[in-house]
Design goal:
With 178 residues, this protein is mainly β. It has a single domain, classed as Calycin beta-barrel core domain (Lipocalin, Beta Barrel), CATH 2.40.128. It is built from one helix and ten strands. The chain has one helix at residues 2-21, and strands at 27-31, 46-54, 57-65, 71-78, 85-89, 92-103, 106-113, 116-125, 131-139, 145-154. The longest helix has 20 residues, at 2-21. The model is unreliable at 3-20 and 158-178 (pLDDT under 50).
Length: 178
């Protein structure tokens, strides 16, 4: 019985260190337009996201080419602590975002305006680390809920720090929010 308690204690103490040892979101990701689901006319022609470890959390950079020919850029650095940070675009400040880790391969990004949530993105990296799915829910001008599902492939040259969720043995389950 003492041995079992020791193993459980060690597992509980080490689990946060293991979960944060490597971040499966780090690297470069490209939107797979064919596998993504967007409302008619809203799907970008091309989008890349690059996330890199930073001194204070993770640095996010995205570049989007729209079907209309325009482009959008976004940059921010945030920790997974739920604190809002400013997002900078090509034309200045965009909506603030806060990040919260909901599991070893799940991050919730919340975008706010005037202290109200205007969009929520659930980012999930697949067990093999090769696919990131971002499901974003927001409201259109009429107040109707709109959902976008972006499926991203990890760039072949991206370094993943050897992080592979499929090789770990875990009983963690991630519940989807309603």
């Amino acid at each position: 019985m003492k041995g079992f308690r020791f193993i459980v204690t060690v597992a509980v103490l080490l689990s946060p260190a293991i979960l944060h040892a490597a971040d499966p979101f780090l690297g470069k990701w490209s939107l797979d337009v064919k596998r993504s689901r967007y409302p008619v006319g809203a799907c970008p022609k091309e989008m890349t996201i690059e996330m890199a470890k930073a001194e204070h959390g993770v640095h996010y950079h995205s570049e989007t080419r729209l079907t209309s020919g325009g482009s959008i850029r976004a940059d921010y650095t945030a920790e997974y602590d739920g604190k809002a940070v400013i997002v900078i675009g090509a034309r200045g400040m965009l909506l603030p975002v806060s990040l919260k880790r909901a599991g070893p391969n799940v991050v919730i990004a919340t975008y706010t305006s005037g202290f109200q949530t205007v969009a929520t993105s659930r980012r999930i990296v697949s067990a093999d680390g090769g696919v990131m799915t971002i499901t974003t829910t927001s409201r259109d001008g009429a107040g109707k809920a709109v959902t976008h599902v972006g499926v991203y492939q990890r760039a072949k040259s991206a370094v993943t720090s050897g992080f592979d969720l499929s090789k770990g043995k875990t009983d963690l389950l991630v519940a989807r929010s309603p």
